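Form 12-C: Joint structure prediction
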Amino acid sequence: MRKAEIISKDSPGERVLLLGNEAIARGAIEAGVQVATSYPGTPASEILSTIASVASEFGIHAEWSTNEMVAFETAAGAAIAGLRAMASMKHVGMNWIMDPLMAVNQSGVREGLVVLTADDPGAYSSQNEQDSRRYSKMTELLMLEPSDVAEAKETVIDAFNISDKLELPVLVRVVGRICHSRADVALGPIRRVKRRGLFKRDRRWVMIAGSSPERHKWLHQQQGKIQKIAEESRLNRIVGKGSELGIIAAGVTYTYVMDAVRCLNLNEKVTVLKIGTYPLPRNAILQLLDKVNDILVFEEVEPVVEEWVKEIAFDGGKKCIIRGKLTGDVQRERDLNVDAVTGSIALALGVKYQALSPEGEKAVEESITITPPRRLLMCPGCPHTATFFIINQAGRKAAKGKIIYSGDIGCYALGFYAFEPPRQDTQFCMGASIGIGCGLAHSGVEDCIVATIGDGTFIHAGIPGLINAVYNNASMVIVIFDNETTAMTGFQPHPGTGVRATGKKTRKVNIEGLVKACGVKNVKVIDPYDIDESIMAVKEAVEYKGVSVIISRRLCMLEWLRRARRKGIEIETYQVDPEKCTGCKFCIDEFGCSAIAFDEKEKVATIDSVLCNGCGVCGQVCPVGAINKVGDKTGC
Amino acid sequence: MEPLIRWVTKLVVSNLEEFNVLIAGVGGQGNLLSSEVIATAAVQEGFKVRVADVFGAAQRGGSVLSHIRIGEEVHSPIIRNGGTNVLLGLEPVECLRVSRLLSPSCTAIVNTRPIYPRDVSIGEFTYSSIPEITSLLRRLVKNLICRDFVKIADAAGDSRALNVVMVGSLAGVELLPIKKEQFLEAVTEIVPKRTVEINIKAFELGFEEARHELH
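Section 2 - Result
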């Protein structure tokens, strides 16, 4: 595979185009990582899959762990045994690792342990936007934040070297913009390591009650070394000599600031301080405050640097005005971009900035009014569309339509957008469908609670919730949307698929067996493409008093298409007979497959043959039998 | 902290300060492949390159946008409002969606065959006519090249080669100092092996179409 060739190439100095996540993976490989762990999560997912694609060549153990907490613990275990290890995850994954991290920061490790968090400012594919930089003070660990793709590669290598010296985990923080942008990067030499782990007994590995204060003292003694590293790091640097405005820019915002300064022609007027370490470099900041006392701070997402600079200014006795998110000079939420940054700088300096002429603005306004939205939808033939139809129909039959869809994270989450009214009523975090469902059940709501959770999500976070529902008697239906993959994040395998990150086969977790072992008496496996049988099974589950589990199992349509294409299988599409169609729109309103359109002129439904993937569910759904396979005139 | 030895042999072409290409399309049209081809050709030619592929959480059928920035004075991977020098519009309304990013001196190469969004296909939104869309675009850009590029891809052998046809047309307007051979090499390297022949043909047809427009 071409990409794998580039990632594993041994040609220092060669310039190649790399995705941010690929650069991070390459950095870990150049640093001689031996154990790499992760759980799929946008924008971090490609890091582990890239390492896994070349793992065997370098003798690296690369795995998708059950969840981020286990991923971190696995990496920490390797670092304790003296191997360089990295755990990468999205920001909400960092929330999962706090329990073990808050003990490993005090025990320390023997060899380099890097924890990489990929934040999602703007929450483009997450339940929240949050600023993981806040964790650096909480954990009292060094956190590094690169500003671009090439720097990301170097930062991972630096992180390992520093972690070795300090015997502490080092945190690296990137944002989606860096993960998913590409740039030219110079490859470096690869440190090939074939070290075998060695467990050296040490009391510090045992964080038993009472041992923390001693270890905590040790962690505090490392803070001086950490500060020195921050002071000397090339991730922080001062650019320019202007004295009208001092701009402090952390991480990726540095690149927006540099573009803005050029666009507004401010090279002589401003000094820019690039920030890439937490703790902040006190010396560089005091140096800046000596020259300029009007400061504007850019960062994503919280005012971390803005607050910290005030501490440093106060301690250093510097009189200055620090502006940023807290003062309303920079937007408080969402990701920044070059226009927002340029606008804020222009305003701060009283300079005019207008990207378009008035005529241009007018044309843009008119364009917006005639541009239709492109909604997030489930793919044509997605088994989840069928499963939602089944639940909805069963709910009408057995619960007078009073259903609460307690939702979760995955492709089925799109049930919020794909149907009117939405078929997701709550969504918080991995596994919350069942947890929140327990709360709703014990509160005595009259609706039937249906927790919707994917196979990957269930294994990641749903099991404790399921046990809780049975153990504490919460009456609900749990529907496991089992499409046999972790689809939303890029079709990664998980313990229920029997395939590992490197493609090697392994033992499969048997979901129905696991559910039964948790004490659930009413468990049924259904095929969502078999509508009548499935509605009956879910109806029974809705009527059952207690915990019912329905496993709705059918391979993800896109996965199926990939395999079908490889085998040369032809798709048999479906079509609507305009003579039989009554224009009732049941297929569109109640079923909602994204391949079914409505012809306003003829007042009949139509199926786009390019979009249709031939699942045939529409044929079963149509109340008048107007939908059949193309070329099949008789039945469904 | 130990200094890292940077063995960077940079072939810097210093007379290009900033050139911005925007590719606007719909998921499934091969937007990202076009972006990779152009960016790879630029890197091989020795330029500094920054690319931002923006696709949100839309798996299929959602808007996809690629910002490709080339040149010495380029820092962030995102093009500013009014900063796009060349627009490759794989789908008509997607060009309108990015109207704010277009420069008044922009050259827009637009495919005129629509992909109707769900809201349109179930009758909740009207898709404007192509003349209405292009007349709006003419107020925003300097040069407009409109074609049914899907038909041209069909002529090459596969309608899915639309994305490579349009990369060919980008090369054909000759606004970027990247040699045609560099583009061809990138196409050959990046597309799936069994599709190389069709894609090279697609590139050439797109190239000729754009050259034809200029002369």
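Section 3 - Comments
Chain A has a mean pLDDT of 96. The longest strand of chain A covers residues 113-119.
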